[in-house]
Amino acid sequence: MAPAGDAGRPGRFFGVYVLYCLNPQHLGRIYVGFTVNPVRRVQQHNGGRKKGGAWRTSGLGPWEMVLVVHGFPSAVAALRFEWAWQHPHASRRLAHVSRRLRRESSFVFHLRVLAHMLRAPPWARLPLTVRWLRPDFRRDFCLPPPPHVPLAFGPLPPRGFVSRPRASPCADTAPELEAVCTLCAGAFQDEEGPLCCPHPGCRLRAHVICLAEEFLQKEPGQLLPLEGQCPSCKNSVLWGDLIRLCWMETEEEEESELEEEHWTDMLET
């Protein structure tokens, strides 16, 4: 399983992607997979099984990674999303999605499934981003993504992390407040990045768990908030924006990739 420390750590990358086959003999085939490093993963697929690619893509390339959904709070959350996207008719969350139509390509069908997934629980509450790595492959979704799920275009920033300026909202916080959470007054651990309100002048610094609990007071029964009122400046803030804006020291990426084949039998939706 993924290390417990992965959950809720802003800056870590967990993505679920779509590969599109450019081989004229297999043109249009697609593959849905999980990755912590998109650049390396597509190289593995094009290198075949001996290079770490999946058996279903081996020898059929070249493959192009055209879309990736990222922003998952943990590897397990991303892997559950991947499994449901691969097997929509086995997922009770997607029982309402009709099967692939006769003239519907596999690519268009999986985009239709994705559109429904982004609006179905529990995924509808995640601070996800849908990124078209190849904008020329873009298609309109049959259902627009929720307002808190942005569409992005172009390659990921270096190292696969969501970029943000180094001049973070926390940069102007008074030194005496830097080491403690605004809500619980507890210290931040060395590997933990505080959440900071993006509104100018706000001095909020909070543990992820503390702020989530604060927001969830108005959403009982939910595990992850969508938005809430900043306890410091009282402005409305999207949870996804807080996560995307949270600054962490860039850490070394994991050298080994979690393989989806090892997880499928362990995960259920």
UniProtKB/TrEMBL annotation:
Recorded GO CC terms: Slx1-Slx4 complex
Needed cofactors: a divalent metal cation
Any Gene Ontology biological process: t-circle formation
Gene3D superfamilies in UniProt: GIY-YIG endonuclease, Zinc/RING finger domain, C3HC4 (zinc finger)
Keywords: DNA damage, DNA recombination, DNA repair, Endonuclease, Hydrolase, Metal-binding, Nuclease, Nucleus, Zinc, Zinc-finger
Superkingdom classification of source: Eukaryota
SUPFAM superfamilies assigned to the protein according to its UniProt record, in alphabetical order: GIY-YIG endonuclease
Residue ranges of domain GIY-YIG in the record: 12-95
Cell compartments where the protein resides: Nucleus
HAMAP family named among the record's database cross-references: Endonuc_su_Slx1 (MF_03100)
Function of the molecule: Catalytic subunit of the SLX1-SLX4 structure-specific endonuclease that resolves DNA secondary structures generated during DNA repair and recombination. Has endonuclease activity towards branched DNA substrates, introducing single-strand cuts in duplex DNA close to junctions with ss-DNA. Has a preference for 5'-flap structures, and promotes symmetrical cleavage of static and migrating Holliday junctions (HJs). Resolves HJs by generating two pairs of ligatable, nicked duplex products.
Subunit structure: Forms a heterodimer with SLX4.
Homology family: Belongs to the SLX1 family.
This protein's name: GIY-YIG domain-containing protein
